Amino acid sequence: MAKAKTNTSSEAKTKDVLARHGVTAKIALELMQEMLLYRRFEEKAEESYAIGKIGGFCHLHIGQEAGAAGVIKVLQPEDYAISAYRSHTQAIAKGISPKAVMAELYGRVGGISSGKGGSMHVFGRDARFFGGHGIVGGQVPLATGIGWKIKYSGESLVCVCFMGDATVNQGGFHECLNMAAVWELPVIYVVENNEYGMGTAFDRVSKTEISTRSVPFDIPASSVNGQDVLSTFEHFHNLTEEVRGGGGPRLVELRTYRFRGHSMSDPVSGTYRSTEEVERHKEESDPIAILRDQLFAEDVLDQDTLEEMDATAKTISAEAADFADASPMPEPEALYENVWAETNAHGRLFFDGQRT
Amino acid sequence: MATMTYRDALNEALREEMDRDPDVFLMGEEVAEYDGAYKVSKGLLDVFGDQRVVDAPISELGFAGLGVGAAMAGLRPVIEFMTFNFAYLALDQIINNASKLCYMSGGQFKVPITFRGPNGPALQLGAQHSQACETYFLHAPGCKVVTPATPADAKGLLKASIRDDDPVAFMEGELLYNFKGEVPEEDDFVIPLGVADLKRVGSDVSIITHGKMVHVALQAADKLESEGIEAEVLDLRSIRPLDVDAILETVQKTNRVVYLEDSWPYAGAGAQVVSIIQEEAFDHLDAPVLRVTQADVPMPYAKNLEALAKPSVERVVGSCKKVLYR
């Protein structure tokens, strides 16, 4: 992590930063603890993947933690969140235990999806975290349907839908913005713009900025520095107030950056993005370092407390990995469980000859 | 018993289910103010209002997925595809989401959604509007498929499909909407999924079929009767869950089977039924199982070519005689 800044001119800017963003010290410290947890959890997942405990695809959110904490911590517990596949941190932010998330990555029975989903399919119904989706943009119509349910039921809730920058080129995204606008659905479409759709820089596949995508549908758009958790929190606090109870949908671009490759199969740098670029972002826009410097300047945090919080994050992450490793793999019978929510009294549902 | 059209039977089913359960809503193109492209939803807007009978923009992927999300969140949507040909635009939402969410989430989410609309060829609608789409919904585990052929079956099965907690592709037929038949007048007439219906009892050959081809099968059976051949017609009604017991029972009875469907031959529902029969009732067969399907071509427009492409009474009679070695 980048070293603490001691530049006095930036101190003048960061003084009273909490007051300016309307965030209490208590909340700011919670956000710091959350981001530390997400960072250490993802690093632990990275280690676990490297030694073969996690298989398949694993997309890490390292560098983008402010987008998880700053958005989801604004929400009420009954609000809904849904995301794509870079979503371990968002699942934890929404209330799924790190143990249950890690065990899911390990494919064990203690996983929140009973080991049936994996990294890309972390679902928590009680936490109102609706996944965990592998097809780019596949979650956007689902989010729109959740918004439909909220309005249909007369509830004063919101649904936050996370997606990546490249998603805004999927046709379904446009269909959903249109429907959300026409029907005034309480959905906040959050585009985590980390500048690359896998290896393709966004400006190579779009002539226009992300925030222009909602113009044809008359949906208000905004753009926020997604590396600054306090700005993000403030922005979403105001936005959810607008949307809750009838303000209609919103599009938000979170300007962010990922410090690891697209997935565990992708190198950090040296192919489609230079090592210099990645290092610069790590040095200048680490959301944890940014908040740290702000809180140091505000005198609500010191190095010792920060290290204690970091130790807590590491402990929770290590315990999650231990829990996951100790959790058994699913029984063979689990192969056929939950294909169908309802086994009809009559008729055959399975056709592989192993099960009638 | 009341006599009504297949269309009116569906309308009654929708009305009753929407009345019974406030979580049921209908969404699709032209379902509200137009009364439905085929008038299936006639009058529903006046009764239930525009929150429950919803005209969607032409965004099949979008509104099918919206239905799936709403179902995950606790509602019970009925999503109409103006025809199932248009449902292909929504296949990602149906297969990757609706059919798989219960499994991927370890059982946390159920998707009690019904996708309904006309399926299969009508008259001279051309290649893109004439597809029998069952196979795409049958193939991935997680979606049920129901194909009613009569007004009574349409009503009873639509009610059951809406109540079912899994995604159901409820496949109707343009050419069936005006067909009249008797429908029981009991208070809550529901036909469970997974139960086939013997539409005609016979002893010489079994015609197993689903959907509007039931009527072609019955016509073929009449023709065969005049030649002294008694055909049994088994209407599967629901092809997933599938009434395998009824299939095996008719095979054991007649020892000769023709499967009739209006989809294409490669990997159609019939191919699956043939596989089951040869695996589980091999020793009861006195002849190979034959299938009568649409010709293996996109549906042509010219009237005579279309007639050649579709399964005809003559082709069914011919195949029945073939398995009888006559």
Explain what the structure shows.
The complex is a heterodimer of chains A (356) and B (326). Chain A has 356 residues and is an alpha/beta fold. Chain A has a single domain, classed as Rossmann fold (3-Layer(aba) Sandwich). Chain A is built from twelve helices and seven strands. In chain A, helix 4 runs parallel beside helix 5 (88-94) and helix 4 runs parallel beside helix 9. Chain A is globular, with a radius of gyration of 21 Å. The model of chain A has no long low-confidence stretch (mean pLDDT 95). Chain B has a seven-stranded mixed β-sheet with strand order 3-2-4-5-7-6-12, sandwiched between helices. In chain B, helix 7 links the parallel strand 6 and strand 7. In chain B, helix 1 (6-20) runs parallel beside helix 7 (151-163). The termini of chain B are far apart. The interface between A and B is large, with 56 and 56 residues.
Please write out the topology.
The complex is a heterodimer of chains A (356) and B (326).
Chain A: H1 8-14, H2 17-21, H3 25-50, H4 65-72, E1 80-82, H5 88-94, H6 98-105, H7 139-152, E2 159-164, H8 171-183, E3 187-193, E4 196-197, E5 200-201, E6 221-225, H9 229-243, E7 250-255, H10 275-284, H11 287-297, H12 303-326
Parallel strand pairs in A: 1-2, 2-3, 3-7, 6-7
Antiparallel strand pairs in A: 4-5
Chain B: E1 2-5, H1 6-20, E2 24-28, H2 44-48, E3 53-55, H3 60-72, E4 76-80, H4 91-98, H5 101-104, E5 114-118, H6 134-139, E6 144-146, H7 151-163, E7 168-172, E8 180-183, E9 197-200, E10 205-209, H8 213-225, E11 231-235, E12 238-240, H9 244-254, E13 257-260, H10 269-280, E14 290-292, H11 303-309, H12 313-323
Parallel strand pairs in B: 2-3, 2-4, 4-5, 5-7, 6-7, 10-11, 10-13, 13-14
Antiparallel strand pairs in B: 1-8, 6-12, 9-11
